[in-house]
Amino acid sequence: MMMMRAGLHAVRAFPSFSRSPSGHSVSGVLQIQGFGTQWKSPSAFQSLRPFSKVSLWPFNTQPKDFSEPNDSWSPEMRKMYDKYFALCEVEAEGGERETEGGEKKRAPWRKLPSYNRALKHATGGVYLSKVIQTKARLFTRNIEEEGAAFEYVVFMNKQEKRCVCIFQSGHLLEGPPGHVHGGAIATMMDSVTGTMTGYLSGPVVTANLNINYRSPIPLGAVVLIHSALDRVEGRKTFATCKVTSIDESKLHTEATVLFLSVKLGSFFGA
Amino acid sequence: MMMMRAGLHAVRAFPSFSRSPSGHSVSGVLQIQGFGTQWKSPSAFQSLRPFSKVSLWPFNTQPKDFSEPNDSWSPEMRKMYDKYFALCEVEAEGGERETEGGEKKRAPWRKLPSYNRALKHATGGVYLSKVIQTKARLFTRNIEEEGAAFEYVVFMNKQEKRCVCIFQSGHLLEGPPGHVHGGAIATMMDSVTGTMTGYLSGPVVTANLNINYRSPIPLGAVVLIHSALDRVEGRKTFATCKVTSIDESKLHTEATVLFLSVKLGSFFGA
Protein backbone atom coordinates (compact mmCIF):
# COMPACT_ATOMS: atom_id res chain seq x y z
CA MET A 1 0.00 0.00 0.00
CA MET A 2 1.29 3.37 -0.89
CA MET A 3 1.79 5.82 1.91
CA MET A 4 -0.76 8.41 0.99
CA ARG A 5 -3.02 10.68 2.89
CA ALA A 6 -6.51 11.67 1.93
CA GLY A 7 -6.94 14.97 0.20
CA LEU A 8 -4.65 15.55 -2.78
CA HIS A 9 -4.24 19.19 -3.41
CA ALA A 10 -2.61 21.44 -5.86
CA VAL A 11 -3.73 24.15 -8.17
CA ARG A 12 -6.50 22.80 -10.34
CA ALA A 13 -5.20 24.61 -13.34
CA PHE A 14 -2.71 24.84 -16.10
CA PRO A 15 0.84 26.04 -15.69
CA SER A 16 -0.23 29.16 -17.54
CA PHE A 17 -3.13 30.76 -15.77
CA SER A 18 -5.75 32.75 -17.49
CA ARG A 19 -5.80 36.12 -15.86
CA SER A 20 -8.98 37.53 -17.26
CA PRO A 21 -12.43 35.99 -17.60
CA SER A 22 -11.98 35.67 -21.33
CA GLY A 23 -8.33 34.67 -21.26
CA HIS A 24 -8.67 30.89 -21.36
CA SER A 25 -5.81 29.02 -22.88
CA VAL A 26 -7.34 25.60 -22.43
CA SER A 27 -8.52 23.57 -25.38
CA GLY A 28 -9.25 20.05 -26.50
CA VAL A 29 -8.56 18.06 -23.37
CA LEU A 30 -9.37 18.41 -19.73
CA GLN A 31 -6.02 18.35 -18.03
CA ILE A 32 -5.09 16.82 -14.75
CA GLN A 33 -6.21 19.00 -11.95
CA GLY A 34 -3.71 19.64 -9.31
CA PHE A 35 -0.38 20.06 -10.97
CA GLY A 36 0.44 23.68 -11.20
CA THR A 37 3.14 26.11 -11.94
CA GLN A 38 5.93 24.27 -10.24
CA TRP A 39 6.67 22.60 -13.56
CA LYS A 40 7.50 25.49 -15.75
CA SER A 41 9.97 24.06 -18.19
CA PRO A 42 8.50 22.40 -21.27
CA SER A 43 10.49 19.24 -20.64
CA ALA A 44 9.19 18.83 -17.12
CA PHE A 45 5.68 19.39 -18.30
CA GLN A 46 6.25 16.98 -21.13
CA SER A 47 6.52 14.18 -18.60
CA LEU A 48 2.95 14.88 -17.58
CA ARG A 49 1.64 14.13 -21.04
CA PRO A 50 0.70 10.48 -20.44
CA PHE A 51 -1.82 11.70 -17.90
CA SER A 52 -2.69 15.09 -19.23
CA LYS A 53 -3.66 13.82 -22.65
CA VAL A 54 -6.60 11.85 -21.31
CA SER A 55 -9.56 13.49 -22.95
CA LEU A 56 -12.67 13.88 -20.85
CA TRP A 57 -13.95 16.51 -23.19
CA PRO A 58 -15.45 15.08 -26.37
CA PHE A 59 -15.72 18.44 -28.10
CA ASN A 60 -13.14 21.03 -28.87
CA THR A 61 -14.40 23.36 -26.21
CA GLN A 62 -13.01 24.72 -22.99
CA PRO A 63 -13.79 23.20 -19.62
CA LYS A 64 -15.89 25.52 -17.52
CA ASP A 65 -14.10 27.71 -15.01
CA PHE A 66 -16.50 27.60 -12.07
CA SER A 67 -14.88 30.57 -10.38
CA GLU A 68 -16.09 33.05 -12.97
CA PRO A 69 -18.79 35.44 -11.76
CA ASN A 70 -22.36 34.25 -12.34
CA ASP A 71 -25.87 35.56 -11.69
CA SER A 72 -26.12 33.90 -8.30
CA TRP A 73 -23.37 36.08 -6.90
CA SER A 74 -24.59 38.72 -4.49
CA PRO A 75 -23.49 42.35 -4.97
CA GLU A 76 -21.19 41.81 -1.97
CA MET A 77 -19.55 38.81 -3.61
CA ARG A 78 -19.15 40.65 -6.90
CA LYS A 79 -17.69 43.70 -5.19
CA MET A 80 -15.02 41.64 -3.44
CA TYR A 81 -14.27 39.83 -6.68
CA ASP A 82 -13.79 43.13 -8.51
CA LYS A 83 -11.53 44.37 -5.73
CA TYR A 84 -9.16 41.42 -5.96
CA PHE A 85 -9.43 41.10 -9.71
CA ALA A 86 -8.18 44.67 -10.01
CA LEU A 87 -5.06 43.60 -8.12
CA CYS A 88 -4.32 41.04 -10.85
CA GLU A 89 -3.58 43.67 -13.47
CA VAL A 90 -0.05 43.81 -14.85
CA GLU A 91 1.93 46.64 -13.34
CA ALA A 92 3.04 48.50 -16.43
CA GLU A 93 5.86 50.96 -16.02
CA GLY A 94 6.37 53.57 -18.70
CA GLY A 95 4.01 51.68 -20.95
CA GLU A 96 6.25 48.62 -21.10
CA ARG A 97 6.28 45.36 -19.24
CA GLU A 98 9.51 44.51 -17.52
CA THR A 99 10.86 41.00 -17.66
CA GLU A 100 12.13 38.97 -14.80
CA GLY A 101 14.01 35.76 -15.54
CA GLY A 102 12.65 35.69 -19.05
CA GLU A 103 9.05 36.03 -17.91
CA LYS A 104 6.78 38.95 -18.25
CA LYS A 105 6.43 40.75 -14.97
CA ARG A 106 3.09 40.16 -13.40
CA ALA A 107 1.07 41.69 -10.64
CA PRO A 108 1.49 39.86 -7.33
CA TRP A 109 -2.11 38.63 -7.37
CA ARG A 110 -3.73 36.30 -9.79
CA LYS A 111 -7.07 34.58 -10.06
CA LEU A 112 -6.97 30.79 -10.14
CA PRO A 113 -9.45 28.93 -12.34
CA SER A 114 -11.54 26.12 -10.84
CA TYR A 115 -12.78 22.98 -12.59
CA ASN A 116 -15.08 20.21 -11.43
CA ARG A 117 -13.28 17.12 -12.53
CA ALA A 118 -10.11 15.33 -11.53
CA LEU A 119 -8.49 12.83 -13.82
CA LYS A 120 -10.64 9.81 -14.53
CA HIS A 121 -7.82 7.32 -14.60
CA ALA A 122 -6.94 6.93 -10.98
CA THR A 123 -6.29 4.14 -8.55
CA GLY A 124 -9.20 3.03 -6.50
CA GLY A 125 -8.95 -0.72 -6.43
CA VAL A 126 -12.13 -2.65 -6.79
CA TYR A 127 -14.22 0.27 -5.64
CA LEU A 128 -13.73 2.57 -8.58
CA SER A 129 -16.30 1.35 -11.05
CA LYS A 130 -16.57 2.70 -14.57
CA VAL A 131 -19.71 4.56 -13.57
CA ILE A 132 -17.92 6.32 -10.76
CA GLN A 133 -14.98 7.14 -13.01
CA THR A 134 -17.28 8.77 -15.53
CA LYS A 135 -19.58 10.56 -13.12
CA ALA A 136 -17.09 11.64 -10.46
CA ARG A 137 -17.10 15.34 -9.66
CA LEU A 138 -15.05 17.51 -7.35
CA PHE A 139 -16.91 17.71 -4.04
CA THR A 140 -16.91 21.51 -3.96
CA ARG A 141 -18.22 21.78 -7.54
CA ASN A 142 -20.72 18.94 -7.61
CA ILE A 143 -23.97 20.90 -7.81
CA GLU A 144 -25.11 22.29 -11.15
CA GLU A 145 -27.43 24.98 -9.84
CA GLU A 146 -25.51 28.22 -9.52
CA GLY A 147 -25.48 29.64 -6.02
CA ALA A 148 -26.99 26.55 -4.38
CA ALA A 149 -23.84 25.27 -2.71
CA PHE A 150 -20.22 26.49 -2.87
CA GLU A 151 -19.63 29.68 -4.86
CA TYR A 152 -16.00 30.69 -4.53
CA VAL A 153 -13.00 32.13 -6.25
CA VAL A 154 -9.37 32.00 -5.12
CA PHE A 155 -6.87 34.82 -5.60
CA MET A 156 -3.24 33.86 -5.12
CA ASN A 157 -0.32 36.02 -4.06
CA LYS A 158 2.76 33.96 -4.82
CA GLN A 159 5.18 36.61 -3.59
CA GLU A 160 3.64 36.73 -0.13
CA LYS A 161 2.86 33.01 -0.13
CA ARG A 162 -0.77 33.52 0.70
CA CYS A 163 -4.17 33.52 -0.91
CA VAL A 164 -7.65 34.88 -0.36
CA CYS A 165 -10.81 33.05 -1.25
CA ILE A 166 -14.15 34.83 -1.58
CA PHE A 167 -16.83 32.34 -0.56
CA GLN A 168 -20.59 32.66 -0.83
CA SER A 169 -22.46 29.89 0.97
CA GLY A 170 -25.57 28.47 -0.68
CA HIS A 171 -28.77 27.09 0.81
CA LEU A 172 -27.69 23.47 0.39
CA LEU A 173 -24.87 23.85 2.91
CA GLU A 174 -27.02 24.06 6.01
CA GLY A 175 -25.86 22.66 9.33
CA PRO A 176 -27.30 24.42 12.38
CA PRO A 177 -30.64 26.01 11.44
CA GLY A 178 -29.90 28.99 9.19
CA HIS A 179 -26.13 28.54 9.35
CA VAL A 180 -23.38 26.89 7.35
CA HIS A 181 -22.50 23.28 8.26
CA GLY A 182 -19.19 22.88 10.09
CA GLY A 183 -18.23 20.25 7.54
CA ALA A 184 -18.82 22.66 4.66
CA ILE A 185 -16.54 25.17 6.38
CA ALA A 186 -13.93 22.44 6.91
CA THR A 187 -14.24 21.53 3.24
CA MET A 188 -13.56 25.08 2.10
CA MET A 189 -10.63 25.55 4.50
CA ASP A 190 -9.07 22.28 3.36
CA SER A 191 -9.63 23.12 -0.30
CA VAL A 192 -8.36 26.68 -0.23
CA THR A 193 -5.33 25.95 1.91
CA GLY A 194 -4.59 22.88 -0.18
CA THR A 195 -4.88 24.82 -3.41
CA MET A 196 -2.41 27.40 -2.14
CA THR A 197 0.04 24.79 -0.88
CA GLY A 198 -0.20 22.84 -4.11
CA TYR A 199 0.50 26.02 -6.02
CA LEU A 200 3.59 26.79 -3.94
CA SER A 201 4.91 23.30 -3.10
CA GLY A 202 3.60 20.95 -5.78
CA PRO A 203 1.20 18.04 -5.22
CA VAL A 204 0.30 17.55 -1.57
CA VAL A 205 -2.23 15.66 0.50
CA THR A 206 -3.78 16.76 3.77
CA ALA A 207 -2.31 15.00 6.80
CA ASN A 208 -3.81 17.07 9.63
CA LEU A 209 -6.62 19.60 9.76
CA ASN A 210 -7.19 21.30 13.12
CA ILE A 211 -10.15 23.68 13.15
CA ASN A 212 -11.48 26.04 15.81
CA TYR A 213 -15.02 27.24 15.20
CA ARG A 214 -15.36 30.71 16.74
CA SER A 215 -18.69 32.02 15.49
CA PRO A 216 -21.21 30.55 13.09
CA ILE A 217 -21.60 31.69 9.49
CA PRO A 218 -25.15 32.61 8.46
CA LEU A 219 -26.39 30.65 5.46
CA GLY A 220 -26.06 32.83 2.37
CA ALA A 221 -23.31 35.02 3.78
CA VAL A 222 -20.19 36.00 1.85
CA VAL A 223 -16.96 35.52 3.78
CA LEU A 224 -13.24 35.67 3.14
CA ILE A 225 -10.98 32.66 3.60
CA HIS A 226 -7.39 33.75 4.17
CA SER A 227 -4.68 31.16 3.89
CA ALA A 228 -0.93 31.56 4.34
CA LEU A 229 2.03 29.24 4.08
CA ASP A 230 3.74 28.99 7.43
CA ARG A 231 6.83 26.82 6.86
CA VAL A 232 8.21 23.86 4.95
CA GLU A 233 10.14 21.03 6.65
CA GLY A 234 11.14 18.33 4.22
CA ARG A 235 7.95 16.73 2.91
CA LYS A 236 5.85 18.68 5.39
CA THR A 237 4.22 22.01 4.64
CA PHE A 238 2.48 23.88 7.46
CA ALA A 239 -0.20 26.40 6.62
CA THR A 240 -2.72 28.54 8.44
CA CYS A 241 -6.24 29.48 7.50
CA LYS A 242 -8.95 31.74 8.85
CA VAL A 243 -12.46 32.64 7.82
CA THR A 244 -13.58 36.22 8.44
CA SER A 245 -16.38 38.56 7.52
CA ILE A 246 -15.67 40.48 4.33
CA ASP A 247 -14.60 43.58 6.28
CA GLU A 248 -12.32 41.23 8.26
CA SER A 249 -13.67 42.54 11.57
CA LYS A 250 -15.22 39.24 12.60
CA LEU A 251 -13.40 35.94 12.96
CA HIS A 252 -15.60 32.94 12.15
CA THR A 253 -13.17 30.05 12.02
CA GLU A 254 -9.44 29.38 12.15
CA ALA A 255 -7.30 26.37 11.42
CA THR A 256 -3.81 24.98 11.05
CA VAL A 257 -3.22 22.48 8.28
CA LEU A 258 -0.35 20.07 7.70
CA PHE A 259 0.27 18.84 4.16
CA LEU A 260 2.56 16.11 2.90
CA SER A 261 4.18 16.31 -0.51
CA VAL A 262 3.41 13.31 -2.70
CA LYS A 263 4.77 12.00 -5.93
CA LEU A 264 2.86 12.74 -9.06
CA GLY A 265 2.00 9.10 -9.70
CA SER A 266 0.57 8.39 -6.25
CA PHE A 267 -3.01 8.37 -7.39
CA PHE A 268 -2.48 7.11 -10.92
CA GLY A 269 -1.93 3.37 -10.86
CA ALA A 270 1.03 1.65 -9.28
CA MET B 1 -23.98 38.83 19.46
CA MET B 2 -24.72 35.47 20.91
CA MET B 3 -21.84 33.25 21.84
CA MET B 4 -22.38 30.42 19.46
CA ARG B 5 -20.15 28.10 17.56
CA ALA B 6 -20.75 26.78 14.10
CA GLY B 7 -22.17 23.32 13.83
CA LEU B 8 -25.23 22.68 15.97
CA HIS B 9 -25.66 19.02 16.61
CA ALA B 10 -28.05 16.73 18.24
CA VAL B 11 -30.11 13.82 17.17
CA ARG B 12 -32.10 14.82 14.13
CA ALA B 13 -35.06 12.86 15.29
CA PHE B 14 -38.02 12.59 17.56
CA PRO B 15 -37.75 11.67 21.20
CA SER B 16 -39.29 8.34 20.28
CA PHE B 17 -37.20 6.67 17.66
CA SER B 18 -38.57 4.34 15.09
CA ARG B 19 -36.72 1.12 15.38
CA SER B 20 -37.81 -0.58 12.23
CA PRO B 21 -38.00 0.74 8.67
CA SER B 22 -41.76 0.80 8.89
CA GLY B 23 -42.02 2.05 12.44
CA HIS B 24 -42.39 5.78 11.83
CA SER B 25 -44.23 7.74 14.42
CA VAL B 26 -43.88 11.04 12.64
CA SER B 27 -46.87 12.77 11.15
CA GLY B 28 -48.14 16.12 10.05
CA VAL B 29 -45.27 18.39 10.88
CA LEU B 30 -41.58 18.29 10.35
CA GLN B 31 -40.10 18.67 13.78
CA ILE B 32 -37.03 20.52 14.79
CA GLN B 33 -34.04 18.47 14.03
CA GLY B 34 -31.54 18.13 16.72
CA PHE B 35 -33.41 17.91 19.96
CA GLY B 36 -33.45 14.37 21.00
CA THR B 37 -34.18 12.04 23.82
CA GLN B 38 -32.80 14.22 26.55
CA TRP B 39 -36.29 15.68 26.97
CA LYS B 40 -38.37 12.73 27.75
CA SER B 41 -41.12 14.14 29.91
CA PRO B 42 -44.15 15.49 28.11
CA SER B 43 -43.89 18.82 29.90
CA ALA B 44 -40.32 19.39 28.80
CA PHE B 45 -41.19 18.48 25.26
CA GLN B 46 -44.21 20.76 25.45
CA SER B 47 -41.85 23.71 25.68
CA LEU B 48 -40.58 22.87 22.25
CA ARG B 49 -43.96 23.28 20.65
CA PRO B 50 -43.52 26.89 19.51
CA PHE B 51 -40.76 25.64 17.27
CA SER B 52 -41.78 22.10 16.61
CA LYS B 53 -45.21 23.04 15.34
CA VAL B 54 -43.83 24.90 12.36
CA SER B 55 -45.12 22.91 9.44
CA LEU B 56 -42.82 22.49 6.51
CA TRP B 57 -44.89 19.59 5.33
CA PRO B 58 -48.07 20.66 3.55
CA PHE B 59 -49.52 17.15 3.48
CA ASN B 60 -50.26 14.71 6.22
CA THR B 61 -47.34 12.51 5.29
CA GLN B 62 -44.14 11.52 6.97
CA PRO B 63 -40.84 13.25 6.30
CA LYS B 64 -38.45 10.95 4.51
CA ASP B 65 -35.92 9.09 6.61
CA PHE B 66 -32.83 9.24 4.41
CA SER B 67 -31.05 6.55 6.36
CA GLU B 68 -33.40 3.79 5.17
CA PRO B 69 -31.86 1.30 2.72
CA ASN B 70 -32.26 2.20 -0.95
CA ASP B 71 -31.28 0.71 -4.30
CA SER B 72 -27.99 2.59 -4.46
CA TRP B 73 -26.64 0.69 -1.47
CA SER B 74 -23.98 -1.82 -2.33
CA PRO B 75 -24.27 -5.40 -0.99
CA GLU B 76 -21.49 -4.49 1.46
CA MET B 77 -23.46 -1.50 2.76
CA ARG B 78 -26.61 -3.54 3.07
CA LYS B 79 -24.82 -6.36 4.85
CA MET B 80 -23.41 -4.00 7.48
CA TYR B 81 -26.82 -2.39 7.88
CA ASP B 82 -28.44 -5.79 8.48
CA LYS B 83 -25.75 -6.65 11.00
CA TYR B 84 -26.34 -3.57 13.13
CA PHE B 85 -30.07 -3.55 12.58
CA ALA B 86 -30.23 -7.05 14.07
CA LEU B 87 -28.64 -5.62 17.22
CA CYS B 88 -31.57 -3.24 17.59
CA GLU B 89 -34.08 -5.99 18.34
CA VAL B 90 -35.75 -5.96 21.73
CA GLU B 91 -34.24 -8.50 24.09
CA ALA B 92 -37.27 -10.45 25.07
CA GLU B 93 -37.00 -12.55 28.20
CA GLY B 94 -39.50 -15.31 28.70
CA GLY B 95 -41.64 -13.86 25.97
CA GLU B 96 -42.28 -10.64 27.88
CA ARG B 97 -40.72 -7.23 27.74
CA GLU B 98 -39.37 -5.92 30.97
CA THR B 99 -39.86 -2.33 31.93
CA GLU B 100 -37.30 0.06 33.23
CA GLY B 101 -38.45 3.37 34.65
CA GLY B 102 -41.80 3.03 32.95
CA GLU B 103 -40.25 2.38 29.54
CA LYS B 104 -40.10 -0.80 27.63
CA LYS B 105 -36.70 -2.36 27.81
CA ARG B 106 -34.80 -1.97 24.60
CA ALA B 107 -31.78 -3.47 23.00
CA PRO B 108 -28.61 -1.39 23.53
CA TRP B 109 -28.44 -0.44 19.84
CA ARG B 110 -30.89 1.61 17.89
CA LYS B 111 -31.00 3.08 14.43
CA LEU B 112 -31.36 6.86 14.26
CA PRO B 113 -33.49 8.38 11.51
CA SER B 114 -32.06 11.13 9.33
CA TYR B 115 -33.93 14.05 7.75
CA ASN B 116 -32.80 16.72 5.32
CA ARG B 117 -34.21 19.85 6.84
CA ALA B 118 -33.56 21.93 9.93
CA LEU B 119 -36.16 24.34 11.20
CA LYS B 120 -36.92 27.11 8.76
CA HIS B 121 -37.37 29.81 11.34
CA ALA B 122 -33.86 30.49 12.46
CA THR B 123 -31.70 33.50 13.05
CA GLY B 124 -29.54 34.56 10.23
CA GLY B 125 -29.73 38.30 10.22
CA VAL B 126 -30.01 40.00 6.89
CA TYR B 127 -28.50 37.05 5.13
CA LEU B 128 -31.28 34.59 5.60
CA SER B 129 -33.65 35.44 2.77
CA LYS B 130 -37.04 33.80 2.38
CA VAL B 131 -35.69 31.83 -0.54
CA ILE B 132 -32.90 30.41 1.55
CA GLN B 133 -35.28 29.63 4.40
CA THR B 134 -37.50 27.65 2.07
CA LYS B 135 -34.82 25.91 0.08
CA ALA B 136 -32.27 25.21 2.80
CA ARG B 137 -31.22 21.58 3.10
CA LEU B 138 -28.91 19.74 5.45
CA PHE B 139 -25.47 19.64 3.83
CA THR B 140 -25.14 15.86 4.10
CA ARG B 141 -28.59 15.25 2.60
CA ASN B 142 -28.68 17.90 -0.11
CA ILE B 143 -28.52 15.72 -3.22
CA GLU B 144 -31.66 14.01 -4.47
CA GLU B 145 -30.02 11.28 -6.49
CA GLU B 146 -29.63 8.20 -4.33
CA GLY B 147 -26.05 7.04 -3.97
CA ALA B 148 -24.51 10.13 -5.57
CA ALA B 149 -23.16 11.74 -2.42
CA PHE B 150 -23.51 10.75 1.26
CA GLU B 151 -25.31 7.48 1.94
CA TYR B 152 -25.16 6.74 5.64
CA VAL B 153 -26.98 5.39 8.62
CA VAL B 154 -26.13 5.85 12.29
CA PHE B 155 -26.60 3.19 14.95
CA MET B 156 -26.43 4.40 18.51
CA ASN B 157 -25.46 2.52 21.66
CA LYS B 158 -26.55 4.73 24.54
CA GLN B 159 -25.34 2.34 27.20
CA GLU B 160 -21.78 2.36 25.90
CA LYS B 161 -21.95 6.02 24.85
CA ARG B 162 -20.83 5.31 21.35
CA CYS B 163 -22.20 4.98 17.85
CA VAL B 164 -21.32 3.43 14.52
CA CYS B 165 -22.10 4.98 11.18
CA ILE B 166 -22.08 2.96 7.97
CA PHE B 167 -21.05 5.34 5.20
CA GLN B 168 -21.04 4.73 1.45
CA SER B 169 -19.30 7.50 -0.48
CA GLY B 170 -20.82 8.59 -3.79
CA HIS B 171 -19.19 9.85 -6.98
CA LEU B 172 -19.93 13.50 -6.18
CA LEU B 173 -17.58 13.49 -3.18
CA GLU B 174 -14.33 13.36 -5.12
CA GLY B 175 -11.21 15.07 -3.86
CA PRO B 176 -7.95 13.44 -4.95
CA PRO B 177 -8.55 11.56 -8.21
CA GLY B 178 -10.63 8.50 -7.41
CA HIS B 179 -10.77 9.21 -3.68
CA VAL B 180 -13.06 10.89 -1.19
CA HIS B 181 -12.48 14.60 -0.52
CA GLY B 182 -10.90 15.37 2.87
CA GLY B 183 -13.71 17.87 3.46
CA ALA B 184 -16.35 15.21 2.87
CA ILE B 185 -14.64 12.99 5.42
CA ALA B 186 -14.47 15.91 7.86
CA THR B 187 -18.16 16.53 7.24
CA MET B 188 -19.11 12.96 8.09
CA MET B 189 -16.89 12.87 11.20
CA ASP B 190 -18.36 16.15 12.43
CA SER B 191 -21.91 15.02 11.71
CA VAL B 192 -21.69 11.56 13.24
CA THR B 193 -19.81 12.66 16.34
CA GLY B 194 -22.15 15.61 16.73
CA THR B 195 -25.22 13.41 16.36
CA MET B 196 -23.94 11.09 19.08
CA THR B 197 -23.03 13.95 21.41
CA GLY B 198 -26.36 15.65 20.82
CA TYR B 199 -28.10 12.39 21.62
CA LEU B 200 -26.19 11.98 24.88
CA SER B 201 -25.70 15.59 26.01
CA GLY B 202 -28.44 17.65 24.37
CA PRO B 203 -27.91 20.43 21.79
CA VAL B 204 -24.23 21.12 21.11
CA VAL B 205 -22.13 22.97 18.59
CA THR B 206 -18.69 22.01 17.34
CA ALA B 207 -15.89 24.08 18.88
CA ASN B 208 -12.83 22.13 17.73
CA LEU B 209 -12.33 19.45 15.10
CA ASN B 210 -8.84 17.94 14.88
CA ILE B 211 -8.44 15.39 12.11
CA ASN B 212 -5.55 13.12 11.14
CA TYR B 213 -5.83 11.66 7.67
CA ARG B 214 -4.05 8.28 7.68
CA SER B 215 -4.95 6.67 4.37
CA PRO B 216 -7.26 7.80 1.57
CA ILE B 217 -10.74 6.38 1.05
CA PRO B 218 -11.47 5.14 -2.49
CA LEU B 219 -14.51 6.79 -4.04
CA GLY B 220 -17.45 4.43 -3.76
CA ALA B 221 -16.09 2.54 -0.76
CA VAL B 222 -18.16 1.64 2.26
CA VAL B 223 -16.50 2.48 5.57
CA LEU B 224 -17.40 2.52 9.25
CA ILE B 225 -17.29 5.70 11.32
CA HIS B 226 -16.91 4.88 15.00
CA SER B 227 -17.54 7.64 17.50
CA ALA B 228 -17.32 7.52 21.27
CA LEU B 229 -17.93 10.00 24.04
CA ASP B 230 -14.73 10.62 25.95
CA ARG B 231 -15.68 12.93 28.83
CA VAL B 232 -17.86 15.84 29.86
CA GLU B 233 -16.49 18.92 31.66
CA GLY B 234 -19.18 21.48 32.32
CA ARG B 235 -20.37 22.75 28.95
CA LYS B 236 -17.61 20.86 27.16
CA THR B 237 -18.01 17.39 25.74
CA PHE B 238 -14.96 15.62 24.32
CA ALA B 239 -15.45 12.88 21.78
CA THR B 240 -13.31 10.70 19.55
CA CYS B 241 -13.95 9.47 16.06
CA LYS B 242 -12.28 7.14 13.62
CA VAL B 243 -12.98 5.93 10.11
CA THR B 244 -12.06 2.33 9.30
CA SER B 245 -12.62 -0.27 6.62
CA ILE B 246 -15.72 -2.36 7.25
CA ASP B 247 -13.64 -5.21 8.67
CA GLU B 248 -11.98 -2.59 10.91
CA SER B 249 -8.51 -3.75 9.87
CA LYS B 250 -7.59 -0.50 8.14
CA LEU B 251 -7.60 2.95 9.75
CA HIS B 252 -8.44 5.73 7.28
CA THR B 253 -8.93 8.76 9.49
CA GLU B 254 -9.11 9.68 13.17
CA ALA B 255 -10.20 12.77 15.02
CA THR B 256 -10.89 14.35 18.37
CA VAL B 257 -13.85 16.69 18.61
CA LEU B 258 -14.80 19.23 21.25
CA PHE B 259 -18.44 20.25 21.53
CA LEU B 260 -20.04 23.02 23.56
CA SER B 261 -23.54 22.68 24.95
CA VAL B 262 -25.87 25.47 23.81
CA LYS B 263 -29.27 26.63 24.87
CA LEU B 264 -32.19 25.55 22.84
CA GLY B 265 -33.02 29.04 21.66
CA SER B 266 -29.56 29.91 20.39
CA PHE B 267 -30.45 29.62 16.76
CA PHE B 268 -34.08 30.68 17.00
CA GLY B 269 -34.41 34.41 17.27
CA ALA B 270 -32.90 36.52 20.01
TrEMBL record, chains A, B:
Enzyme category, top tier: hydrolase
Domain of life: Eukaryota
GO terms for cellular component: mitochondrial inner membrane; mitochondrial intermembrane space; ruffle membrane
Membrane topology classification: Peripheral membrane protein
Pfam families referenced in this protein's UniProt entry, alphabetically: 4HBT (PF03061)
Domain Thioesterase: residue ranges: 178-248
Gene Ontology MF term list: hydrolase activity
Gene3D superfamilies found in the cross-reference section: Hotdog Thioesterase
Location relative to the cell: Cell projection, Ruffle membrane; Cytoplasm; Mitochondrion inner membrane; Mitochondrion intermembrane space
InterPro entries to which the protein is assigned, alphabetical: HotDog_dom_sf, THEM4/THEM5_acyl-CoA_thioest, Thioestr_dom
UniProt keyword terms in alphabetical order: Apoptosis, Cell membrane, Cell projection, Cytoplasm, Fatty acid metabolism, Hydrolase, Lipid metabolism, Membrane, Mitochondrion, Mitochondrion inner membrane, Transit peptide
GO biological process, one term: fatty acid metabolic process
Catalysis performed (reactions): (9Z)-octadecenoyl-CoA + H2O = (9Z)-octadecenoate + CoA + H(+); octanoyl-CoA + H2O = octanoate + CoA + H(+); tetradecanoyl-CoA + H2O = tetradecanoate + CoA + H(+); dodecanoyl-CoA + H2O = dodecanoate + CoA + H(+)
EC number: 3.1.2.2
The family this protein is said to belong to: Belongs to the THEM4/THEM5 thioesterase family.
Record's protein name: Acyl-coenzyme A thioesterase THEM4
Organism annotation: Astyanax mexicanus
